[in-house]
Amino acid sequence: MPRPGFVLDVDRSTPPILFHHGESLRLERLPAGRTRVLYPGEPIEPLDDPEGAIRAALDNPLGDSEPLRALLRPGMKLTICFDDISLPLPPMRRPDIRQRVIEAVLDRAAEAGVDDVHIVAALALHRRMTEAELRHAVGDRVYDAFAPHGLLYNHDAEDPDNLAFLGTTPHGEEVEINKRAAESDLIVYVNINLVSMDGGHKSTATGLASYRSLRHHHNVSTMRRSTSFMDRHSSELHSSNWRMGKVIRDAGVKIFQIETTLNNDCFGTSGPMAVLQKREWEWSARDRASFVAMRAGLDRMPSKAKRKIFQAWLAPYGLTSVQAGEVEAVHEVTVENVYRQQLVEVEGQTDILTMGLPYICPYNVNSVMNPILVMCLGLGYFFNMYRGRPLVREGGVVIMSHPTPWEFHPVHHPSYIDFFEQVLADTTDPVEIEARYEKQFAEDEWYRHLYRTSYAYHGVHPFYMWYWGCHGLAHAGKVIIVGGDPRSVRRLGFTAASTLQDALAMAEDVVGRDATITHLHNPPFVMADVK
Amino acid sequence: MVALPNAVSRYLPKLPFPFSAPTVPSGVEVPAGKARSGPDYDTEWARRYPARVARAALVEAVARPAVQALARPQLHGLDRLDPLVEAGRPVIFAANHHSHVDTPLLSCSVPEPWRHRLFVAAAADYFFRTRVTSVLSALVIGAIPIDRSRVSRRSADRAADLIDGGWSMLIFPEGGRSPDGWGQPFRGGAAYLALRCGVPVVPVHLEGTGRILRKGRKLPTPATARVTFGHPLTPVPGDDARRFGATLERAVAALADEATTDWWQARRRAHAGETPALTGPAAPAWRRAWALGDPDRRRTRQRRRWPAN
């Protein structure tokens, strides 16, 4: 029986706590008597028969939707869309759940005699997926059957010939999505809900959208009013997407949503990485030996080698639920299933929030975690892993542990380099950045060309990363990065500290002595339900 | 010799986590996994042939010469076990306990066919305190962990299973080494297992091992030890663990009396109910110490027991 997540009150008997630190690992002793650690739940039991569960979901849809079989007919246009490389994290072992679902959908389509099928990676303004990445996501059978004929491809948000304007929400938000999808008789969206932020109308309204559409919710104002992204009902980002979803529906676009949830099995129960998802006081002699060896090895390796090792890791995630049907009905059940694994009740806020940032975030799969992504992962994602109130009080201190190297992937993140060198050198204020620089980067022809033909994130993407963390930035009184490159950290506008103890001492200037501390023991995923 | 890892680990510097085992935060329950030490440590491996061969080699090649050098043991009463030898049944050897020398001494003194099919009931909180001591205890003396802090069904079940499987048990019913040279009241474990498994108990009295390495001392001093085996005791109808345990304690006390005086006197006092108790006089500490004489004197003659006639 897997144990749920819980809050540990640190005492003198508490061993040092594991902090992820990019591609390395640290053990930190946290002050006793005023610190608590939020531990994730153990991986809940996966479904015994994932394929059976998928078939059952397709045949028994939720909400106002007919079974998939009834929606398929000969001569129709079917577009299957799926989440891109940003999900799940780390990438999962084969077979990827998208492959299983897409194969089940295609089986139904073949049975119904549907000929016109396109499969689209719904990547919005993310970089295009490579052939290897597509093969991993959808499987070789699907790839070999569709890609050579140009029927499996990446969404292009900058292709004016393949975008359809569907209308405007009452709030004036323009809705423009992939034309093939918009003109299909049916969109089947295959989603992975790794966290509660994913899925729902956001799948189509964001994943298949253009910059023209995305800018209405990917902006500072919306992000600041999203408290948090992980709680749809308190997220302005989601409200905007839901309004757009209504426009899409009213335009006659029919969507059959398939959402899946995974358990917390990021690092497995055996093997060298298993120690990373065990509670420290339960580390066996073998765990400790493998940790010591791993840490010693990582400390001596060049960063490229470390990155290669970590990026090669494939998580043995298990499928915990799959539901299909009408978007909103499906999403309600999905979110409950995500919460079942990740939500942990926490009493009250804290003065200092600490977090060890791992080697991966949604935007550096097979890539480099550059300083902007460090900010986004810490203040955008980890900070937002709450429901109710933020874990840290307003004016509190956020301490993140990451090497924050001044390093960028030149193919994946070209606009990030200019953003870091030019924009952040000028200002770190999101409002000012948005007003002065966004349009220039978003409409830059070179970035547009790289996004469409190479494997680059869109020119505007680093802005969105900065906005993603702007709620955390406005909320926290001070942000400290432990063990980071001081130049990078200063460029981000944060404070660098050599050790966690130094960082805690620095935090005293803001929150006073004997401040309360909460550590988010993440990954695997844990989300705070702050009372 | 089993105490060595404890003694060694006491002087080793305490390494920080993760180089040493983690401490457990208070209020947190560690899930029961495969225990690597403590009362739940599984010693099944120590009864497989490779471990038995290794243990036999250790007993014959290491323990026996060491015991000969240190204790020059004198064995008495082995003839009382002859009927059991013929029956070939497992038995329980129950002895008084003065010293860490007692276990190797008895491992070498217990006759065949039990010597190499013997397990020792050992305190889990001492012999199975760490992973290293657990492995050594199980391998070297064939120990199984007994939880002496509470009544443990698991410990009893484990011992009973082994006895039912044809293994004989060596147990010190006092539950630990004598703190002052006098015996301690017997606990009921040996009697309970004899009743449960229907096997006889052989009372054994050890004399002199306290002088070799009494509790609290680190280095042994050579002296002569005497091992006296008594008549096997079999529960009679109507016996319960408490009553049979008392019988066992009286039998060991009678052997102690026999070792101190002679067989005839000891038998007479036993029948008259005048056998001196193993636990010594109910008197202040100095008088108990006085009655023992000088425990450090290197002597081979019999010690006077209280009350002396």
Q: Overview of this structure, please?
A:
The complex is a heterodimer of chains A (531) and B (309). Chain A is an alpha/beta fold and 531 residues long. Chain A has 2 domains: 6-43 and 276-313 and 342-530, Alpha-Beta Complex (2-enoyl-CoA Hydratase, Chain A, domain 1), CATH 3.90.226.30; 53-262, LarA, N-terminal domain (Rossmann fold). Helices cover 38% and strands 21% of the residues of chain A. Chain A has 21 helices and 20 strands. In chain A, helix 20 (486-492) links the parallel strand 17 and strand 18. The model of chain A has no long low-confidence stretch (mean pLDDT 96). With 309 residues, chain B is α/β, with parallel strands linked by helices. Chain B has 12 helices and 7 strands. The model of chain B has no long low-confidence stretch (mean pLDDT 83). The A-B interface holds A 3, 8-11, 13-16, 27, 280-285, 288, 291-292 and B 16-19, 21-28, 30-31, 36, 131.
Task: Summarize this structure as a short list of keywords or feature phrases.
A: 531 residues; alpha/beta; 2-enoyl-CoA Hydratase, Chain A, domain 1; Rossmann fold; seven-stranded mixed sheet; six-stranded mixed sheet; 21 helices; 38% helix; 21% strand; globular; B: alpha/beta; Glycerol-3-phosphate (1)-acyltransferase; 12 helices; 7 strands
Low-confidence stretches of chain B: none
Alpha-carbon distance between the two ends of chain A: 27 Å
Largest sheet of chain A: 7 strands, mixed
Task: Label the CATH architecture of chain B.
Answer: 3-Layer(aba) Sandwich
The whole-number mean of residue pLDDT values of chain B reads: 83
Largest interface: A-B, 19 and 16 residues
* CATH class membership of chain B: Alpha Beta
Number of helices of chain B: 12
Backbone CA Rg of chain B:
20 Å
CATH topology of the largest domain in chain A: 2-enoyl-CoA Hydratase, Chain A, domain 1
| Mean pLDDT figure of chain A | 96
Helicity of chain B, in percent? 25-40%
| CATH fourth-tier homologous superfamily of chain B | Glycerol-3-phosphate (1)-acyltransferase
CATH superfamily (homologous) name of the largest domain in chain A: LarA, C-terminal domain
Q: How many domains, in number, for the residues of chain B?
A: 1
* Low-pLDDT segments of chain A: none
Report the sheet-strand fraction of chain A.
15-25%
Strand adjacency order, main sheet of chain A: 1-4-19-14-16-17-18
